Amino acid sequence: MSPHPRITAVLSACAVVLGAAVLMTSCGSSGNGTGAQATTPVMKDSTGTVGSRTNLRLGFVTTVQHPYGLALAAFARRVTALSNGKVGVSLTAAYGGGDDLALLTEIRSGAIDGGSVSASVWQGVGVQSFEALQMPFLITNYAVERSVITSPLAAEMLKGTQALGLTGLAIHEGGLRKPAAVDGCLIEPSDFVGVQMRSVQSDLLAESITALGAIPTVMPLGKVASAVEDGRLNAIEANVGLVYTQKFYEVLTCMSGNVNLWPFPAVLVVGDAAWNAIPAADRAVITRAATSLASDSLDILTDPASTLMADLCKAGEGFFYFGTATSPQLAAMREAVQPVYDRYAKVDPTGGFVTRIEAIKARTAQPVPAPYPPGCAA
Prior knowledge:
- By secondary structure, this protein is of the alpha/beta class.
- It has helices spanning 13-18, 67-82, 100-109, 142-149, 152-158, 189-192, 203-212, 224-229, 240-245, 272-276, 280-290, 293-302, 308-315, 327-336, 338-344, 350-362; strands spanning 36-37, 49-50, 53-59, 87-93, 114-118, 166-173, 178-181, 196-199, 215-218, 235-238, 254-256, 265-271, 321-323.
- The radius of gyration is 20 Å and the shape is globular.
């Protein structure tokens, strides 16, 4: 890894758990002990309605300003518009302290109607239909991902949630994940050797990190910043939105800008009991609104007017920067993870989905990456 001074700034506990303070009034919860309200909730009765108004309660694990939150806010607005105000969506950010598995458990129990659960954790509850989306170095740009998650393939993947008593509505993206480290850049396999890297609760992602040479440490989002601060972690895999909204630029020095390990989609689901309690006409509105969620999320991430990269560079000015891997270095990392492909090719339905994604990738034009903001490249 190329050396770079380590920043010693300390993240506040409030920023870690609930995101940017400007969006939250305090470090308190929304009253249910699980997160911060992103919109004003409408209380529901046992039928899922208030008078003639249906309200759908959804949770997600990031802050409101993360791409997950922005896409879900657009979904909520679309539901309201399509129903002429008859159907509402209440969003709870930082649900369960940022723990996807906790959110999934509460959706299944009926504690909350539904939510967007990161695709990576479904493997841990026996749903394998989303594994292909996060095979290492398979989907490395948003053009390919758009072709995948807006295609019939996505609908097939969503059927996997039915085994858990859940209705899958859409897959939406949170941002391509890149390696980011405390000291220097991770741009070739030798840089990963011995590095303690955070992994989400996913065997696939942990195996991929191991194949690259690093040591995966599995933990939910809410515990990451403190683990970096006390030395239990010295690298993470994250997207730009996560680094900015969680202020990880205060404890990391380099993100490998063109090393796109895998995308980080979320799966919007509703518990069957809550779903079936909603009038059929209102379910139709929600379903219709959900058809735009995948594109909305990618539009947010590819918006040429977005200032996210510039804002991140400004916030981390002087100690956080982007590194770039050469083509041979990228090829070496892809070669390092081949054993992961060899193993998952034998898994059904993952192997078949990977083959279909590879075919989509082969016929999709590859976009030219945008340059880094001035002064932000290594």
